[in-house]
Amino acid sequence: MLRFASAVVLVAYAAAAPLKKEVKVPGWPSLPFPFSEGVLHCMSCSPGSAVNQPCTLKISGNQGFDFMAKPPGLVPGGIANQTKYALQDISAIVTAANATMDDITSCTVWLADIADFEGMNSVYTTFFASPYPSRAAAGGYSLAGHGALVEIACEAIAPCPYS
User: Fold this and answer.
1) For the domain that residue 39 is a member of, what is the CATH number?
2) Is the pLDDT of residue 74 over 60?
3) pTM for the whole thing?
Protein backbone atom coordinates (compact mmCIF):
# COMPACT_ATOMS: atom_id res chain seq x y z
CA MET A 1 0.00 0.00 0.00
CA LEU A 2 2.87 2.38 0.74
CA ARG A 3 4.22 2.05 -2.84
CA PHE A 4 0.82 2.90 -4.30
CA ALA A 5 0.43 5.97 -2.06
CA SER A 6 3.93 7.16 -2.98
CA ALA A 7 3.17 6.76 -6.69
CA VAL A 8 -0.07 8.75 -6.33
CA VAL A 9 1.79 11.57 -4.56
CA LEU A 10 4.50 11.56 -7.25
CA VAL A 11 1.94 11.71 -10.08
CA ALA A 12 0.02 14.50 -8.30
CA TYR A 13 3.25 16.47 -7.81
CA ALA A 14 4.29 16.00 -11.46
CA ALA A 15 0.89 17.26 -12.66
CA ALA A 16 1.17 20.34 -10.42
CA ALA A 17 4.87 21.03 -11.04
CA PRO A 18 5.58 24.50 -12.42
CA LEU A 19 6.40 24.80 -16.10
CA LYS A 20 9.56 26.64 -17.08
CA LYS A 21 9.77 27.26 -20.83
CA GLU A 22 12.33 29.21 -22.85
CA VAL A 23 11.06 31.96 -25.16
CA LYS A 24 13.06 32.48 -28.36
CA VAL A 25 12.54 35.15 -31.00
CA PRO A 26 12.32 33.58 -34.48
CA GLY A 27 15.19 34.70 -36.71
CA TRP A 28 17.50 35.87 -33.94
CA PRO A 29 20.97 34.34 -33.92
CA SER A 30 22.08 32.10 -31.09
CA LEU A 31 24.44 33.94 -28.79
CA PRO A 32 27.40 32.32 -27.01
CA PHE A 33 26.11 33.24 -23.54
CA PRO A 34 24.43 31.03 -20.92
CA PHE A 35 21.07 32.82 -20.85
CA SER A 36 17.58 32.73 -22.33
CA GLU A 37 16.00 35.69 -24.12
CA GLY A 38 12.95 35.12 -21.96
CA VAL A 39 11.58 32.43 -19.67
CA LEU A 40 7.93 31.63 -19.03
CA HIS A 41 7.26 30.45 -15.49
CA CYS A 42 3.81 28.94 -15.17
CA MET A 43 2.24 27.56 -12.01
CA SER A 44 -0.91 26.10 -13.59
CA CYS A 45 -0.39 25.42 -17.27
CA SER A 46 -0.28 22.10 -19.06
CA PRO A 47 -1.11 20.57 -22.43
CA GLY A 48 -4.77 19.62 -22.71
CA SER A 49 -5.82 21.36 -19.49
CA ALA A 50 -9.25 22.98 -19.53
CA VAL A 51 -8.03 25.78 -17.25
CA ASN A 52 -4.64 27.35 -17.87
CA GLN A 53 -3.58 30.31 -15.77
CA PRO A 54 -1.35 33.11 -17.13
CA CYS A 55 2.40 32.79 -16.75
CA THR A 56 5.12 35.16 -15.59
CA LEU A 57 7.49 36.11 -18.39
CA LYS A 58 10.98 37.05 -17.21
CA ILE A 59 12.92 38.93 -19.89
CA SER A 60 16.71 38.99 -19.82
CA GLY A 61 18.54 42.31 -19.79
CA ASN A 62 18.62 43.89 -23.23
CA GLN A 63 21.04 46.48 -24.50
CA GLY A 64 20.84 48.55 -27.67
CA PHE A 65 21.60 45.53 -29.83
CA ASP A 66 20.60 45.04 -33.46
CA PHE A 67 20.22 41.29 -33.94
CA MET A 68 19.44 41.65 -37.66
CA ALA A 69 22.62 43.59 -38.55
CA LYS A 70 25.48 41.76 -40.25
CA PRO A 71 27.24 41.20 -37.90
CA PRO A 72 24.83 41.74 -34.97
CA GLY A 73 26.04 44.38 -32.52
CA LEU A 74 25.43 47.47 -30.44
CA VAL A 75 23.88 50.36 -32.37
CA PRO A 76 25.52 53.77 -32.66
CA GLY A 77 23.66 56.94 -31.84
CA GLY A 78 23.96 57.33 -28.09
CA ILE A 79 21.54 56.66 -25.26
CA ALA A 80 18.32 57.38 -27.20
CA ASN A 81 19.08 54.93 -30.01
CA GLN A 82 20.40 52.23 -27.66
CA THR A 83 17.27 52.57 -25.50
CA LYS A 84 15.04 52.33 -28.59
CA TYR A 85 16.75 49.12 -29.74
CA ALA A 86 16.72 47.59 -26.24
CA LEU A 87 12.97 48.18 -25.99
CA GLN A 88 12.35 46.95 -29.54
CA ASP A 89 14.21 43.75 -28.61
CA ILE A 90 12.10 43.43 -25.45
CA SER A 91 8.98 43.93 -27.58
CA ALA A 92 10.12 41.09 -29.89
CA ILE A 93 10.56 38.76 -26.89
CA VAL A 94 7.15 39.72 -25.48
CA THR A 95 5.57 39.10 -28.89
CA ALA A 96 7.29 35.69 -29.12
CA ALA A 97 5.53 34.82 -25.84
CA ASN A 98 2.15 35.90 -27.32
CA ALA A 99 1.94 38.98 -25.09
CA THR A 100 2.24 42.75 -25.66
CA MET A 101 4.14 45.64 -24.15
CA ASP A 102 0.96 46.43 -22.19
CA ASP A 103 1.48 43.11 -20.36
CA ILE A 104 4.81 44.26 -18.90
CA THR A 105 4.47 44.79 -15.14
CA SER A 106 7.99 45.89 -14.15
CA CYS A 107 11.34 46.94 -15.60
CA THR A 108 14.81 47.47 -14.22
CA VAL A 109 17.06 49.93 -16.05
CA TRP A 110 20.83 50.11 -15.61
CA LEU A 111 22.68 53.08 -17.08
CA ALA A 112 26.42 53.41 -17.59
CA ASP A 113 25.98 57.08 -16.64
CA ILE A 114 23.02 58.34 -14.59
CA ALA A 115 23.30 61.62 -16.52
CA ASP A 116 21.71 59.68 -19.42
CA PHE A 117 18.48 59.14 -17.44
CA GLU A 118 16.56 61.92 -19.25
CA GLY A 119 17.61 60.64 -22.69
CA MET A 120 16.66 57.07 -21.78
CA ASN A 121 13.36 58.16 -20.22
CA SER A 122 12.31 60.22 -23.23
CA VAL A 123 12.42 57.05 -25.37
CA TYR A 124 11.20 54.67 -22.64
CA THR A 125 7.92 56.61 -22.28
CA THR A 126 7.11 56.09 -25.98
CA PHE A 127 6.95 52.30 -25.50
CA PHE A 128 4.50 52.24 -22.58
CA ALA A 129 1.08 53.62 -21.72
CA SER A 130 -0.53 54.28 -18.36
CA PRO A 131 -0.59 52.42 -16.08
CA TYR A 132 3.16 52.24 -16.59
CA PRO A 133 5.20 49.25 -15.41
CA SER A 134 6.85 49.65 -12.04
CA ARG A 135 10.46 50.61 -12.59
CA ALA A 136 13.82 50.89 -10.90
CA ALA A 137 16.65 52.79 -12.58
CA ALA A 138 20.24 53.24 -11.48
CA GLY A 139 23.43 54.57 -13.05
CA GLY A 140 27.16 54.26 -12.77
CA TYR A 141 27.45 50.69 -14.07
CA SER A 142 30.09 49.12 -16.25
CA LEU A 143 27.71 47.12 -18.44
CA ALA A 144 28.67 43.92 -20.22
CA GLY A 145 29.09 44.72 -23.89
CA HIS A 146 31.60 47.18 -25.26
CA GLY A 147 30.03 50.62 -25.37
CA ALA A 148 26.66 49.66 -23.90
CA LEU A 149 25.02 52.71 -22.33
CA VAL A 150 21.81 51.05 -21.11
CA GLU A 151 20.46 47.63 -20.17
CA ILE A 152 16.78 46.95 -19.50
CA ALA A 153 15.21 43.80 -18.03
CA CYS A 154 11.45 43.37 -17.61
CA GLU A 155 8.75 41.06 -16.30
CA ALA A 156 5.36 40.54 -17.93
CA ILE A 157 2.24 38.43 -17.72
CA ALA A 158 1.87 36.10 -20.71
CA PRO A 159 -0.69 33.45 -21.67
CA CYS A 160 -0.05 29.80 -21.03
CA PRO A 161 1.71 28.45 -24.15
CA TYR A 162 -0.81 25.59 -24.21
CA SER A 163 -3.94 27.78 -24.20
Assistant:
1) 3.30.1330.40
2) yes
3) 0.86
